[in-house]
Amino acid sequence: MAADPIRVLVQQLAKLPGIGEKTATRLAFHIVRAPESYARELSDAIRDVRQSVRLCSQCCSLTTDDPCALCADQRRERDKVCVVSHPPEQLAIERAGAYRGLYHVLHGVLAPLDGIGPDDLRIAELVRRLQCGEIREVILALASTVEGEATALYLAKVLRPMGLKLTRIASGVPIGGELEYTDAATISRALEQRREL
């Protein structure tokens, strides 16, 4: 007996990050009720993204062109590289509009308990890129998690002998945040990284 196609679709959708069985079921029934053209377009879009998106040979971000649009943009500050763990973080920094340098995407953070070590990240590509000598500052824009901190410390150890300026983005109380509801680690970090007015 063939498997129920709706059940198979629910199971596949539930494998997506942040999608539980209820949401997967809702999405599956939306697809079933939608016009056939929608399902075909969705299928084509998934197939197209898998076939056409690859890593930029310079920054390791996801792109359809190589180099990606940001690496190819000669108006960007080419002496700075901002290191992020995943492409969505790069997009968030770009949306903020305050940074005009280059990027490097690691595609993860060190997580020894999950079996993710330095060789599983795009660290070797970063080191090769920095050896070219054009970049003077490396900005570590990694999350303030145990894994993010471990990755930042590891990168600092690897990159410090190269004589580059190494910086870390500040972290602390978000704008509009209430101290009363902020965790102790965030408050401690905000106090440690305070600036003179």
Architecture overview:
- The structure is a single chain.
- This protein has 197 residues and is α/β, with parallel strands linked by helices.
- It has a domain at 95-171: Dna Topoisomerase Vi A Subunit, Chain: A, domain 2 (3-Layer(aba) Sandwich).
- The protein has helices at 5-14, 21-33, 36-52, 69-72, 87-96, 123-130, 146-159, 184-192, and strands spanning 54-55, 62-63, 77-84, 101-105, 137-140, 165-168.
- The longest helix has 17 residues, at 36-52.
- The model has no long low-confidence stretch (mean pLDDT 92).
Which helices and strands occur, and which strands form pairs?
Blueprint: H1 5-14, H2 21-33, H3 36-52, E1 54-55, E2 62-63, H4 69-72, E3 77-84, H5 87-96, E4 101-105, H6 123-130, E5 137-140, H7 146-159, E6 165-168, H8 184-192
Parallel strand pairs: 3-4, 3-5, 5-6
Antiparallel strand pairs: 1-2
Helix pairs in contact: 1-2
Give the CATH class of the domain at 95-171.
Answer: Alpha Beta
Estimate the global geometry from the Cα principal axes.
globular
Radius of gyration equals 21 Å
Query: Beta fraction of the residues?
Result: 5-15%
Overall residue-averaged pLDDT value: 92
* N-to-C series of helices and strands: HHHEEHEHEHEHEH
How many helices in DSSP terms? 8
Spatial strand order of the main sheet: 4-3-5-6
The termini sit apart by 72 Å
The major β-sheet equals: 4 strands, parallel
Key words describing this protein structure:
197 residues, alpha/beta, Dna Topoisomerase Vi A Subunit, Chain: A, domain 2, four-stranded parallel beta sheet, two-stranded antiparallel ribbon, 8 helices, 6 strands, 43% helix
